[in-house]
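Note to self: the last two entries modelled the partners one at a time, which told us nothing about the interface. This time every component goes in together.
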Amino acid sequence: MALTIALAQINSTVGDLPGNAHKIMQVAQKATEQGADVLVTPELSLVGYPPEDLLLRPSFLRRSQQVLDDLVSQSKQLSDLTFVVGYPRQVNDQVFNAATVFRNGEVLGHYGKLELPNYAVFDEQRYFDPDGAPCVFGCKGVRLAINICEDVWFPRAPALARAEGAQVLLVMNASPFHLNKQAERLQVVQSNVSRHSLPVAFCNLVGGQDELVFDGDSFALDAKGEVTARANRFSEDLLMLQYDPQSASLIGSLQPEMSAEYQAYHALTLGTHDYVRKNGFTGALVGLSGGVDSALTLAIAADALGPDAVTAVIMPSRYTAQISIDDARACAKALGVQTHEISIEPAYDALVASLAPAFAGRGPDLTEENLQSRVRGVLLMALSNKTGRLVLTTGNKSEIAVGYCTLYGDMSGGYAVIKDLLKGWVYRLSRMRNTLHPGVDGAPVIPERILTRAPSAELRDNQTDQDSLPPYDILDDILMRFVEQGQTVAEIESSGHSREVIAQVMGLIRGSEYKRRQAAPGARITRRAFGRDWRFPLTNRFSEKELFL
Amino acid sequence: MALTIALAQINSTVGDLPGNAHKIMQVAQKATEQGADVLVTPELSLVGYPPEDLLLRPSFLRRSQQVLDDLVSQSKQLSDLTFVVGYPRQVNDQVFNAATVFRNGEVLGHYGKLELPNYAVFDEQRYFDPDGAPCVFGCKGVRLAINICEDVWFPRAPALARAEGAQVLLVMNASPFHLNKQAERLQVVQSNVSRHSLPVAFCNLVGGQDELVFDGDSFALDAKGEVTARANRFSEDLLMLQYDPQSASLIGSLQPEMSAEYQAYHALTLGTHDYVRKNGFTGALVGLSGGVDSALTLAIAADALGPDAVTAVIMPSRYTAQISIDDARACAKALGVQTHEISIEPAYDALVASLAPAFAGRGPDLTEENLQSRVRGVLLMALSNKTGRLVLTTGNKSEIAVGYCTLYGDMSGGYAVIKDLLKGWVYRLSRMRNTLHPGVDGAPVIPERILTRAPSAELRDNQTDQDSLPPYDILDDILMRFVEQGQTVAEIESSGHSREVIAQVMGLIRGSEYKRRQAAPGARITRRAFGRDWRFPLTNRFSEKELFL
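The predicted structure of the combined assembly is written out below.
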């Protein structure tokens, strides 16, 4: 008789212990109705991932254990279903990134993660002790073992499970998304597990947590390492797998692949939705300039939250072209989003007049450009305070990398939707979104002219971004190589970029570190974003330029 | 014949490899003139501490090795002086937090740190591989061993050095300051090293690096663990030690102790000085309200940078009491600091008028208070942009903990001078500063009335901080227990605080996490500050209040 394994690809919320426990019981009920024998949940499913310094609070650990114990009791309600639930488990002075296996109100075993990632966005050695003692348990005569996430990125833990006689490896994950991560995960699991001819049931978290987005994409591999089942991406799912001990096959349903643009768009939508909703905001506000960044941000917000929960604020100045206002209005209209239009001129003039005595003898410079941006920031934050809606910032990764943005101006806001999208990707996602479905008025949600005009901050006459920056295709390529791939300047130079441009970009990146330190979080969708995996000092005299010397 | 060991308590700058190398050669010259046989520098002295993600750049590691190699060559100029210099040393795929010993142009050996701290502000397991193979070298017939910082917080590394026959342990440190750290260091070193009857020469870094302040306080212990020499605190020093192999004594000069308030004041002054100067700013700007926080911030800034490099900006509104303006003027005058006075009323009125249509039907609330604060932020940032001076923010730890501050308003600025001072400590340091020396006009630098008035944000009529917050003595005690000591709510309750107040404070801390995430860095002077050692999620439904349930 086949064994039925249910992978509960759930969206836990960090710190919401009772809510997550309730969610696990709900999905367990559903899994039972579908004939499940075993229910596998993601890494730290009971507490959300990553709980960060909550793990240093004794009360958090005690409460986690209490809620886990309650779940064990409640498991009596679902006769013979075996639960595998992740939570931080304290044993004397040690804390493990653990899983507990229980059935019919009784604990069958525990597993503690062996490999603790402490690179990129991960700080697990700050919180956890390594364990790795194999946990193999029986269910309908089949021997199942547990690994947790990073464990399968190395050979040790799967080999230990195999040595203990495991027939199927259950892998609990909170594996964050970035572009191409799916292929990477598969390859690593195949390399470390499939060589033992061990079928794999890989259950991943889904949802947004601050800067991280978990894409779900739970899957199964048979003993040969072939993909035999695949869950939804970017939404909750319950993936049912049938294990046949005779053939060692592990079979379920297969969801289709998605294009890279489609993945990125869904990741940003999910990240935005979860940040806004998990933090209890009723909606969001976007400053809409008539440019592509704010247009895409508005589209993502409207798709994530529904158009009624989003307000666009158009804030023109003397430097704003009429076509910018027209395009902004058209974009909001197509998305069905309410707008406010507020000129920044009166407040800007009042500020300039107030500052005039202190500025005596000094001509206009970047100060006045920043002032315009800051008036917009103040207006948006006032609307946010008054209405309870969260301000979404609209800066892209190219701008944030080189500091082409104003602290306390366009950087004001709680969540930076496209913070990890290079400018070229902003266009790619905008075009992709226009192909999905038209606006409520039948027009493209991002007006064509927005996609073809030269980008401008419109903070002085006839300004374009390229007055201050290298062309975006060059800038983006250098940023991708330096930030995401970690190339040296020599490698970047040998790819064909000029020494002058590389040096300019390096200087701009280093000089804008202080802005990024005070930036809002935003969804990470690349291998390296400006968040927890970018920890450069502010005070720093090292310049990559030195390497040209 | 006695061996002379020189402890070079230097102020390295992160990333300034040639500058730090030059500094090491300068101090080596001076040490030679004073008869030194061995020159010990702090942990990672060549590159500054902590270099953070610079350590992930291959170019940074290569360049560090180059500059180290240059130093080895230059050591020929100082005949027979043995150098002990810290830098990140790459060996194949491994990177060590290392020290290299060299003399007369030749390398005598290497040491790699064994214990890598990965808690509090430290992320060393993100960057380094552990080593710990003992490095014992001879100098004038004496056997000297090296440990690096965290090594002496555990028994293993000192025991290994002892087993290799070391007669003196040289300890290279980048040990950050917090109140009472001095006593803690001594006790730990005595416990782990002195039990081996091993004299200790402990060389610590001095200076500010972003949120960290290194206090110097290099010292020597004799074989019995008695302190026999002590360097300056909060400034560079060269501590000369005489080691007599006969008596195993290690003798130098002893600097006197400092009070806790004096230490804290010096730490903040050094942190402010180094942030402003190492980042190349010509000076600083402080918004001066007539309250104690901005008065103390201004005093620290003037002491750190000199009064000519500091500008105070007084920005009254309809809610500003005349005595606040008078006291602000008196404070600036006593400190000899230039002032600007700019009313926020015209800009505030213009913003309110611009927002009126969007606000139709909604009465005044916190929005209007935040608007006032944000106009001040915009004015300060405009002055900063125009003059190149850095804005120093004036919020204290009590306010920042509970979110009693305005994002993009009074939180606008590059460095938060008193961010780690609870309100009670703000008063303590203010009174202490008034006893040091009077103002340039003979008056107290912080006018007495500022120290006795009830604190108010002056954002509406007759407002005081205690309208919104528990009394500061209660708030501060709860914060000290929760934030700095990590007590549970049960422990805090048993110390005598009411459940209602504890729950209120816990709720305020959790609800203001998003503000702290976008806050400027500021000097850490307690066991736990709101910086790298405070990593709570923004999206977080766990409340300590749950523990009362």
